[in-house]
Amino acid sequence: MEVACPVAPADDWVARTAGEVRAEAGRRHPGEPPTCASGISPSGPVHLGNLRELMVPHLVADEVRKQGAPCRHILSWDDYDRFRRVPGGFPPEFAGHIGRPLTAVPDPCGDHPNWAEHFKQPLRESLARLGVLVTEISQTQMYTSGAYAAQIITAMRRRADIGAVLAKYQTKQPAQAGPADPDDEEPGNAGDYYPFKPYCAACGRDDTTVTGFDDETTRITYTCACGARVGPVPVAEVAGKLVWKVDWPMRWAYERVTFEPAGVDHSSPGSSFTVGGELVAEIFGGEMPLHFGYSFVGTTGSAKMSGSAGGAPTPADALEIFEAPLVRWLYARRRPEQSITLAFDQEVGRVYDEWDKLTQKVADGSADAASQVVYGRAAGTAEGPLPVTPRPLPFRTLASVADITAGHHEQILRILRDLTMPDPVAALDEVRPRLDCAQAWVAGYVAPADRTQVREQPDTVRLAALTGEERGALKILTERMGDDWSLDGLTTLLYGIPKLLRSLPLSAPPTPDLKAGQRSFFILLYQLLIGKETGPRLPTLLLALGQDRIRALLTPQVTG
Q: What is d(CA 388, CA 375) in angstroms, rounded to the nearest whole number?
């Protein structure tokens, strides 16, 4: 469905930030498009918390483009960072590479040139599906090509000034927020602080200590824990990088960054942003980007996720069970300072229901202005709408069908045809990718013990113990279910049988006694059909089984 873009409400943070970004870029660099920035370290699986680092600037950059102006969104890969630890689930022998650049560590699976590329590729694929356009910048390439040579020399010559700024905030904030990175050394005495960390020419690790730097010749000397002593050699010829709190503001100036949000830990007093704000102007002659802190992203039962710890869900994991516009919506509907929780449990069905309700409201014009704007950002970008399921049946229904049929495509199509009469689904492609999402959710997130296993043979013991009322209820069901073999027809019949047993019309309003009777009847059906007291929605289950199999499981002791 193509949706016209409504006028953004006055309190729309995306539209407001986009306007500020355009104005600021025009003031700083007239005639140049603004630059929104994201930074990701591919040290392990890139998780859903990292995705917010990309989605916040993406929404702003995309809004600028929707306003008819160009905007650049850069993704700076911090792939020249040191390998700090082996993520959970990966071979422990990789600990031998700790201290080397991520691009100097082998790919754990052997499919990519190095460790960093192994974790970049899944995110690239996810961003393409989400419609997030970025210009990738490899920090390995930037540092090793000499692009930052002048900036490194400047930082080394101004090391005392940099050390003074760092020391000031170290005094105010002993436990500084920001990345726990060993290369982010705090200054000791002004004379022995150096903001550049070499990678050893002998062992390739950064277990190095700079022992001298000549401001005139720009030659550096350093030692390494491996025993190597190097120098004096021109610093421009030494592999290494600026420490984090210096590297970041250097790049703000180099890339002319207009807007770069960051996690709230980077935005607290004395944090990376505070330090960087002073260094970018005093040392590198640039300006601090517009910014604000965004809150964390978690999953059900999780507060904050850490990619380096391993096991946190990734964008690819989310896109297995959520359609791409829905993933965008989960991020776009929250203000940056609000935390986000993505469900991978039974709440997935509720999230889809909310999305479908919003879609319907937008389609019939009943959605409020704010909801329309958020929906528009979720459903498409300045490049156009994202692909959607042509016929979006309820997710819970598709999950139940996938569960009952164990993913058998012919059975799924048969059931969906019955469910959608009188306008039946003609092919499964009509309900994709949502059907694929439902199947992936059942396979990956529903415990085997909780999946539906239909009985192969009737439960003769339970059938023999039926009460008179239970026999009567099953008799009505088996005799009348074919009168209206549809989802609505079976729903009406199932809820109506306890009414008929009480000599009430099908239209009789619910009473406590009637509700108790319906509950008992449903438990009986679940017991006889799947051996449990709960399960998928009964009308869907009956349609999945078919009339012959239902009678085979319910009638042997009823008619005998």
A: 13
What is the model's pLDDT at position 4? Answer: 43
Helix (H) or strand (E) holding 515, with range, is helix 512-530
CA distance 283 to 153: 11
CA distance linking residue 560 with residue 551, whole number of Å: 13
Nearest Cα to Cα of residue 214 among 282, 153, 163: 153
β-partners of residue 341 are 298
Tokens 């799947």 correspond to 530
The number of C-alpha atoms within 13 Å of 414 and in the hemisphere containing its C-beta is 14
Tally Cβ neighbours within 10 Å of residue 194. 23
Contact 42, 5 (CB under 8 A): no
- Looking at residue 196, the DSSP 8-state letter turns out to be E
102/254 Cα distance (integer angstroms): 22
Do β-strands 229-234 and 135-138 pair in parallel, antiparallel, or remain unpaired? unpaired
Separation CA 363–CA 352 (nearest Å): 16
Q: How many CB atoms lie within 10 A of CB 469?
A: 15
What confidence score (pLDDT) does residue 11 get? 77
CA gap 132, 442 in Å, rounded: 28
- Structure confidence at residue 304 (pLDDT): 31
Given this model, what pLDDT does residue 306 score? 38
The owner of tokens 């022992």 is 211
- Sign of the four-CA dihedral 441, 445, 446, 449: positive
Q: What is the dihedral of CA 341, 45, 348, 52, to 10 degrees?
A: 40
Count of alpha carbons within 13 angstroms of residue 354, beta-carbon side: 14
CA angle 534, 536, 541 (to 5 degrees): 115
- Per-residue DSSP letter, 390: S
At 474-519, the pLDDT tens digits run 999 999 999 998 888 999 999 999 999 999 998 899 899 999 999 9
Helix axes 487-501, 512-530, angle to 10 degrees: 120
SS3 annotation, 85-144: CCCCCCCHHHHHHCCCEHHHCCCCCCCCCCHHHHHHHHHHHHHHHHCCCCEEEEHHHHHH
The conformational region for residue 114 under phi > 0 = left, psi -120 to 50 = alpha, else beta, is beta
Domains of the chain, CATH where assigned: 1-182+242-383 (3.40.50.620), 389-451 (no CATH), 460-559 (1.10.10.350)
Q: Output the pLDDT for position 418.
A: 86
Q: Give the three-state DSSP class for 229.
A: strand
Closest CA to 91 of 104, 76, 74, 109: 109
Count other C-beta atoms under 10 Å from residue 412's C-beta: 23
User: Residue 491 has which token pair?
Assistant: 């729903």
Whether residue 264 contacts residue 294, with contact meaning beta carbons closer than 8 Å, is answered with yes
Q: Which 8-state DSSP code applies to residue 455?
A: -
Q: Which residues contact 461 (CB under 8 A, 6 or more apart)?
A: none
Cα-to-chain-centroid distance, residue 345: 15
CA distance 173 to 270: 6
Q: Which long-range contacts (CB under 8 A, 24 or more apart) does 304-308 make?
A: 304/49, 305/47, 305/48, 305/49, 306/47, 307/43, 307/44, 307/45, 307/46, 307/47, 307/49, 307/50, 307/87, 308/43, 308/44, 308/84, 308/85, 308/87
Q: Which residues of the chain have pLDDT under 50?
A: 1-6, 172-183, 301-310, 558-560
